[in-house]
Specification:
- About 80% of the residues lie in helices and about 0% in strands.
- By secondary structure, it is mostly helical.
- The protein has a single domain, classed as MFS general substrate transporter like domains (Growth Hormone, Chain: A, Up-down Bundle).
- Helix 5 packs antiparallel against helix 15.
- The longest helix has about 40 residues.
- About 0% of the residues have low confidence.
Length: about 425
């Protein structure tokens, strides 16, 4: 009798131990994903991004804007195939390929300086980011689900993206200091090291063995499912549209603020990285604050409204104020809040899509964002050559209109 009891206890103990080992494996995956994002975000060139393109690459501002439009087009071409790679092979495979692609970029930019090489570099950036975009968030969700913590998806995505921002915060000042005392070329080549570490990390990620319903005969159906889901799901369409349209407007400030302070205030290169790091600290702060506010209040729609209206007002103030310290503060608020508001959409979007095609559908969302960027960037580039303050004023007004006319309901979030 005692032996049977011992056997039952031993079996129960073994099951518990096995479960603990599995949970430990999935938790370690989350840590590795956080570290992966940190080293991918350790982009030394971010602190001197506009000088990198305009001074080192020899581009005019309008050429730079068109180059970003080209990047958006390449993302469109890569997003769905890369989503299929993640769903058909594995999300781990997708991240490994992304890391290897990133690793090649410093060699492209650093060894030969020409506009053709910049186009090749932008193509690789698009390929890398397309591989990551659907897989990264989906892999975080999959690991959380394995340990029964999927309800914390917003918090985990915020932490995941926060690590990326932390990499930017540390690397941006370093990049501007190195550029000031050596050269931009050295800054580019030094990015080899964080990208190499990110590659090693992805190789050590434990693969999650979901039952894979995707095979060689239904790859097209997997591709088509992302568009079908958007077509039939009105709530998902509303969430996606209101997420990406404001995001695009805010991203344009990220792309142009260095040009603005360089031309309007003639700030030395040395300080660019510190300004960029301050803006990223702001985004990092809001990225961690918003999930806490989201959990602490009942009306998430009201929080989204506030998080949209403030960047709109900030854009307008930037256009009419000519006092550098105040403008820098507005940069912190507009970019910090504007690029963190997507966290409020994360739970609602994930509730609307099925697990098995999650990476493909998330990639489909990014395709729609890329289409809008490819269309709008050249038009905006032409407007910026007329008057940048007028453009900022226009963006502020548009954000206010979208905030006031929002179709999002409380139960969507």
């Amino acid at each position: 009798m005692d032996s049977i009891s011992d056997l039952i206890i031993e079996v129960g103990y073994n099951k518990t131990a096995s479960k603990n080992v599995k949970n430990s494996k999935y938790r370690s995956n989350l840590v590795k994903l956080y570290l992966f994002n940190f080293f991918i975000g350790f982009s030394l060139i971010s602190g001197v991004l506009i000088p990198f393109y305009l001074l080192y690459g020899g581009f005019t501002l309008i050429e730079f804007i068109f180059l970003q439009s080209y990047y958006a087009i390449m993302v469109i071409l890569f997003e769905i195939p890369c989503g299929v790679i993640a769903d058909y092979f594995s999300k781990k495979t997708s991240l490994i390929l992304a890391s290897l692609s990133y690793l090649s970029i410093p060699f492209i930019y650093g060894i030969i300086t020409s506009k053709i090489m910049f186009i090749i570099g932008e193509t690789l950036f698009a390929f890398s980011n397309a591989l990551i975009s659907g897989s990264n968030e989906a892999l975080v969700y999959d690991n959380l689900k394995q340990i029964g913590k999927e309800k914390y998806i917003s918090k985990s995505i915020a932490k995941n993206d926060g690590m990326f921002l932390l990499g930017l915060i540390i690397s941006a000042p370093l990049g501007s200091i190195i550029a000031e005392f050596t050269s931009i070329r050295i800054v580019v080549l030094l990015m080899i090291f964080p990208y190499l570490i990110s590659t090693i990390i992805t190789i050590t990620i434990h693969r999650i063995n979901f039952k894979n319903n995707t095979n060689s005969s239904n790859l097209f159906e997997t591709l088509k499912s992302g568009f079908d889901e958007l077509k039939k799901n009105r709530i998902l369409r509303i969430l996606i549209f209101e997420k990406i349209i404001i995001e695009i407007i805010i991203i344009f400030l990220v792309l142009t603020y260095q040009f603005y302070i360089m031309m309007e205030f003639n700030i030395p290169l040395f300080y660019f990285g510190f300004i960029d790091a301050s803006i990223t600290v702001s985004q990092f702060t809001f990225l961690n604050l918003i999930p806490r506010l989201e959990n602490g209040i009942e009306n998430k729609r009201q929080l989204l409204f506030i998080n949209t209206i403030i960047p709109g007002v900030g854009y307008i103030l930037i256009a009419i104020i000519n006092f550098m310290p105040l403008i820098l503060l507005l940069f912190l608020i507009v970019i910090g809040m504007g690029l963190s508001r997507y966290i409020l959409f994360t739970n609602g979007i994930n509730k609307q899509i099925k697990k098995e095609n999650r990476a493909t559908i998330l990639s489909t969302i990014n395709v729609l964002s890329g289409i809008l960027k490819a269309i709008l960037y050249p038009l905006i580039g032409l407007l910026i050559m007329i008057n940048i303050n007028f453009l900022y004023m226009l963006f502020g007004v548009l954000i206010l209109i979208f905030a006031l006319k929002s179709k999002i309901k409380e139960d969507y979030l």
